[in-house]
């Protein structure tokens, strides 16, 4: 649009330049005539300084009148690029995609999902059967937002804020929906010396809100903090990242097994705890009480030599 306007203005600009210089050319011609008249014995009473002032005044007046007749350029709708177009949402928490359009005029703003080229909203109306999507717009404002209720991980992707110009113009907004994660530090297996303290720390991240409760189980049975065994405690700190720490003092062989951290609004995480009674962790992996002296293949190579030396001694 700017190029077309400039192209149409070029002849007018040349005309302005020509007309502005006409008085100067006329004055120059008069000066030449004056010099010629003086050389011929005639006297010209016009002062060149007065002529220059008259020419400048005429040029400015003509330019002002000419520019008043030129229509102002038409500015179409534009996107405000200062609005962030990378949005991070959480599963289950309402997400908002924002778009700001200046000089919209009588155009319409729509939201389109790129994944399936699906029209979600047009103006303030919703054009999808998925009622989680809704257009948000305050009258006489430049803001056009898309609200997504209960977003899921599958809702991640590109959404386009589009203006109904010819051809349409769009502005992409990138949405990333994060799913809550649960992790027990040090997993999936922990080796604890008998008599020491078991310290299991569970971290819950990217949940729409801190979990109301965080439970712990041992071999799929809820841990009883009031059991006669004693020495079991739980410390939970809630926030954007919630931590739950399970402490079991004076670990014994009965504490061996699988422990699970179960937040109420996220998936669970499991870790296997081994209680060592003077054994080496490698031996636990082999399911034996001690470390093998040598691999079987080495034993098979040594046995024939032992038989030979035994036969020679006999």
From TrEMBL:
<protein>
    <submittedName>
        <fullName>Lachesin</fullName>
    </submittedName>
</protein>
<dbReference type="InterPro" id="IPR037448">
    <property type="entry name" value="Zig-8"/>
</dbReference>
<dbReference type="Pfam" id="PF07686">
    <property type="entry name" value="V-set"/>
</dbReference>
<dbReference type="InterPro" id="IPR007110">
    <property type="entry name" value="Ig-like_dom"/>
</dbReference>
<dbReference type="InterPro" id="IPR003599">
    <property type="entry name" value="Ig_sub"/>
</dbReference>
<dbReference type="Pfam" id="PF13927">
    <property type="entry name" value="Ig_3"/>
</dbReference>
<dbReference type="InterPro" id="IPR036179">
    <property type="entry name" value="Ig-like_dom_sf"/>
</dbReference>
<feature type="domain" description="Ig-like">
    <location>
        <begin position="180"/>
        <end position="272"/>
    </location>
</feature>
<feature type="signal peptide">
    <location>
        <begin position="1"/>
        <end position="27"/>
    </location>
</feature>
<dbReference type="GO" id="GO:0050808">
    <property type="term" value="P:synapse organization"/>
</dbReference>
<feature type="domain" description="Ig-like">
    <location>
        <begin position="77"/>
        <end position="164"/>
    </location>
</feature>
<keyword id="KW-0732">Signal</keyword>
<dbReference type="InterPro" id="IPR003598">
    <property type="entry name" value="Ig_sub2"/>
</dbReference>
<dbReference type="GO" id="GO:0032589">
    <property type="term" value="C:neuron projection membrane"/>
</dbReference>
<dbReference type="InterPro" id="IPR013783">
    <property type="entry name" value="Ig-like_fold"/>
</dbReference>
<dbReference type="InterPro" id="IPR013106">
    <property type="entry name" value="Ig_V-set"/>
</dbReference>
């Amino acid at each position: 649009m700017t190029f077309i306007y400039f192209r149409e203005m070029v002849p007018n600009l040349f005309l302005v330049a020509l007309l502005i210089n006409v008085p100067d050319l006329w004055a120059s011609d008069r000066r030449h005539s004056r010099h010629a008249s003086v050389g011929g014995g005639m006297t010209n009473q016009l002062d060149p300084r007065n002529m220059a002032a008259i020419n400048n005044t005429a040029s400015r007046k003509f330019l002002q009148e000419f520019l008043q007749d030129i229509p102002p350029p038409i500015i179409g709708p534009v996107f405000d690029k200062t609005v962030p177009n990378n949005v991070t949402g959480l599963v289950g928490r309402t997400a908002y995609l924002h778009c700001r359009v200046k000089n919209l005029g009588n155009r319409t703003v729509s939201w389109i999902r790129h994944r399936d080229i699906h029209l979600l909203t047009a103006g303030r109306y919703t054009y999808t059967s998925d009622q989680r999507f809704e257009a948000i717009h305050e009258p006489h404002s430049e803001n056009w937002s898309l609200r997504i209720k209960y977003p899921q991980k599958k809702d991640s992707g590109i959404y386009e804020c589009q203006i109904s110009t010819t051809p349409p113009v769009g502005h992409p907004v990138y949405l990333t929906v994060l799913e809550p994660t649960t992790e027990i530090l040090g997993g999936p297996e922990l080796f604890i010396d008998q008599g020491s303290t078991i310290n299991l720390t569970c971290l819950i991240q990217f949940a729409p809100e801190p979990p109301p409760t965080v439970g712990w189980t041992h071999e799929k049975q809820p841990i009883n903090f009031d059991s006669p065994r004693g020495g079991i405690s739980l410390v939970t700190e809630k926030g954007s990242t919630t931590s739950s720490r399970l402490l079991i003092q004076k670990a014994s062989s009965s504490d061996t097994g699988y422990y699970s951290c179960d937040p109420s609004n996220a998936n669970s995480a499991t870790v296997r705890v081994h209680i060592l009674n003077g054994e080496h962790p490698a031996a636990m992996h082999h399911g034996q009480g001690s470390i093998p002296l040598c691999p079987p293949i080495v034993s098979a190579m040594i046995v024939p030599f032992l038989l030979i030396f035994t036969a020679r001694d006999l």
